[in-house]
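Hello,

Our lab assistant flagged a job as stuck in the queue for most of the afternoon. It eventually completed. Since we weren't sure the result was trustworthy after the delay, we are filing this so someone can double-check. Below is the sequence as submitted and the structure that was eventually returned. Let us know if re-running is recommended.
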Amino acid sequence: MTLAPPARLARYGAAFADLDAPFAFVDLDALWVNADRMLARSAGKPIRLASKSLRCRAVAALILERDVGFRGQLTFTLPEALWLAEQGLRDLVVAYPSADRGALRDLARLTAADPAGAPVLMVDCVEHLDLIAAAVGPVQAPLRLCLDFDAAYWLGGGRVRIGAKRTPVRTPEQAVALAREIAARPGVTLVGLMSYEGHIAGVGDRIPGSPLKSRAIARMQGASYRELRARRAAAIAAVGAVADLEFVNAGGTGDLERVAAESAITEATAGSGFYAPHLFDNYAAFALEPAAMFALPVVRRPGPGVVTALGGGYLASGVAAADRAPRPYLPPGLALDPQEGAGEVQTPLHGRTADALRIGDSVYFRHCKAGELCERFDRLYLLAGDRIVDEVPTYRGEGRTFL
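-- returned structure --
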C-alpha cells in the first residue's frame, strides 16, 4: 500500500468527518505495511518492540498478537516495565539503567514470584550493581540483568566520539570484567547483552538538498559498522564464555538489515518504524509509509496565503533544530512559518493550498520522532481503510507518564 497524498487525504476526510481536531491517530493499513517491510529487512531475526516509540499498550498488543516475528518489548523505565508486567506481559527488557530504589525492590519481589518472567534490568558498571544490592538486600531469586555494550565510533585515537553517550563498557575485556563481577554476586545473574548503534540506526543518510552531507554520513556509518561488528562479536563471545546469555539485542529501525547479518545477534529492536515519523524519510536503504499523525484545526486566516492552526508545538527531543519540529503533511503544499514555527497555542502555515482551507478544516501533521507524540494525546484513533475501527488510550491516557 502506497497511497498518493490526495487518496490519503480523501480517506482521512471520510474517516474523521465527524471528529473535531485536535486528535492523533494511527493508520493501521500503513502500520502493517511498515511491519512487513521491517520483518523482511530483519531476514527472520526476531524484532523486539521499543515501547518508548509506541507508548500505547493497545498498539503494541496488536503487533505482538500477529506472532510473525515480533517478540517482547524493550521498555524505557523500570516502573514502566513493572506496570506492563502487572498487566500480564512477559519478555520485558529495560533498556536503560534504573536508580529507582523503590522500583528495584518491587522488581525483586516480582522476580521472587516469577524468576524466569520478571523484567530484565540494564547495567553497565559496578556502581549499578552496588546500588541494586543496597536497595534490595538479600533476594529470594537473583535479579536478571543485561549488559550494555558501547557501540559508538571513536576517531582520532579516541578523542572524537560519534554516537550516543551511553555505556562505558567499550572493549571485550571490559565486558568480561563486568560479567565476572555479576557472576560473583549471588543477588544478580547475567542473561543478556545489548548494544545500540544509534548513530547508524537513528541517523538518515539521504539528506534532502545535501548530497555531500549524505555521502559523509554514509561513509561514517559504513566505517563505524565495520569496526563495531568485529568488536561486538568478540565481546559477545567473551561474555558468553562467562554467562549463559538468553539473548543478544542490537539495532533499530534504521539498520535492521545490518543486524540481520550478524550471526552473534539473536534479536533486533524496532519501534519508530511502525509509526514512521518524518525522521525516517531520510534513509537510502528503505522506505516507510506515514502511519501515525495528529490533526489540528484551522482557526484563523491572517491574510492571503496563510492560515493558522490551533496548537502544534509538539517538538521532538534531541539537539534543538528545525528538523525537530513537526511537519504539515496533508493537504500538500503547506509549510511552517519561519519566524513562528510550531507554536504552543498556534501554528501559522504558508503555502499554495492555504487559501483553499476553511475555518474548521483539519491539517494533518507528522511528528519528527515516534513516542513523544503519545505524550501529547491521551488517545489514538485506529484507522483501517476509511473507518475508525477503535479508540485506544496512550500511556498518558492511562495516567502513566514515565518520562
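-- support follow-up --
The delay was a queue issue, not a problem with the job. The result is valid. DSSP finds twelve helices and 19 strands in the chain. The chain has a mean pLDDT of 94.
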